[in-house]
Structures are given as C-alpha cells and as structure tokens.
User: Which sequence fits this backbone?
C-alpha cells in the first residue's frame, strides 16, 4: 500500500522567512496530493492541492511542487507570518481521491 | 453553506463499552470518510461511504464499523473499546466518491473520545 513520509517533523522559522516541507510517496499510481493545515484544537483545512498532471501550483504565499519521477512533493510558504504556525499534513491518493494516506505531519512555528 | 458537523464533540467511555459517533456532511455532499487522529499514529483512514455503501476501507479491526443513511449522514461505531481507541475521530465530506474535480474533502471538528 501507499506510504507517505514527511520531513521535517518540526520546523521553526523567523517571521518573514520561507518554510519548505517535503513529502515522499511510494505508490506511483497516486495522482492527487493535498496539503492540510491544522491549528491547535481545530479541524484540518485544505490549503492547496495538486494533481499529477501539473508540476507546480501557487496560491498567494503558498506553492506546491510535484516531482513524479522522484515521487516527492513539497509545500513552500513564503513571507511566513505568526498565523502560519500550525501542523501541516500532506496526503496522497489514487484516482483523484481514493484512499487518502497522510504524512505524519510537520509542526511549523513562526517566531516573531 | 453549513460545514461538516459531528456529534458529540467529546465522549468518555470505559474499556469494553461501545460508542457511536455521528457526522452530517455539507449539504449536497454524498461521500463521507472517517479518520482516526492520534499523536502517535497521525491521521489514519478508517473508511469511506458513498450512497449508503462502503467504498473504501483502511486497516482497522472489525470493531470499527460504519454506515451511511439515505440523507448522507454517517455514523461510526466502535465496539469493545480499548484504551488505544482514545483519539480524535474526524469525518470529512466531499461531493462524490471519485470523479475528476471532486476530490476536495472538508473536515468536521471531530469527536474526541477518551477511553478509561
């Protein structure tokens, strides 16, 4: 079955710096990769996603890149702000949404 | 449009008991998935229902079961509770099961279950 690894497990950055979180997956049939942000005590919320036919997607300060050959995808957050502090989860799925497998999460702390 | 709702939000049970959790999806969403979230294991997929049928299932024992009603509301049941079942149980809804452009899941606030 699919296995998703995520690194780093914790990340601290200064406000205004960039943050990068990387995930690798094992199932070459996976074709949909969402990223979720979960603030303390709240539900996971989708922040960006990418399909396998796209190499990069950007939404304001957030971008995701996908390397299908290497089977990894990364979340890039630029100009980080304290409200970006949260746990970020990546996920991979087949058939554009069948059997999501989540990474273990990255705790991002943005220091003022 | 109202979001995904889950009841109850908190629950305390003892070992050996059973529990039923409820999830109401976003209006118009017919697919409901259930996840278990724990500090040690992260987010793990339990199962997904669409049109009252279980479509996908994760690697959980048979003590974990679910069902979906004709109005798309879903319930999850855990029988013979164990201490390790203590977790946040999240449900997520989306418009359909698998279809291009319909992958996005929206999570509910979760039910926090504590087994003593």
Assistant:
């Amino acid at each position: 079955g699919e296995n998703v690894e995520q690194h780093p497990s914790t990340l601290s950055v200064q406000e205004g710096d960039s943050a990068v979180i990387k995930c690798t997956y094992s199932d070459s049939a996976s074709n949909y990769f969402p990223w979720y942000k979960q603030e303390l005590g709240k539900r996971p919320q989708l922040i960006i996603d990418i399909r396998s036919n796209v190499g990069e997607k950007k939404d304001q300060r957030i971008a995701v890149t996908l390397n299908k050959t290497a089977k990894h995808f990364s979340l890039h957050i630029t100009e980080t702000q304290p409200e970006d502090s949260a746990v970020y989860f990546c996920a991979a799925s087949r058939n554009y949404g069948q059997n999501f497998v989540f990474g273990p999460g990255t705790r991002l702390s943005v220091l003022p | 449009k109202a979001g995904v709702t889950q009841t109850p939000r908190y629950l305390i049970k003892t070992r050996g008991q059973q529990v039923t959790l409820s999830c109401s999806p976003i209006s118009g969403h017919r697919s409901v998935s259930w996840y278990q979230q724990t500090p040690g294991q992260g987010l793990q997929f339990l199962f997904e229902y669409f049109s009252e049928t279980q479509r996908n299932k994760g690697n959980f024992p048979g003590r974990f079961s679910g069902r979906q009603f004709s109005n798309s509301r879903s319930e999850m049941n855990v029988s013979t509770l164990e201490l390790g079942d203590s977790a946040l149980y999240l449900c997520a809804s989306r418009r359909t099961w698998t279809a291009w452009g319909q992958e996005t899941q929206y999570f509910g606030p979760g039910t926090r279950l504590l087994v003593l």
Q: What stands out?
A: Chain B is about 0% helix and 50% strand. Residues 46 and 61 of chain B are 10 Å apart (CA to CA). Chain B touches chain A at residues 33, 42-45, 48, 55-56, 58-59, 90, 94, 97-110 (CB under 8 Å).
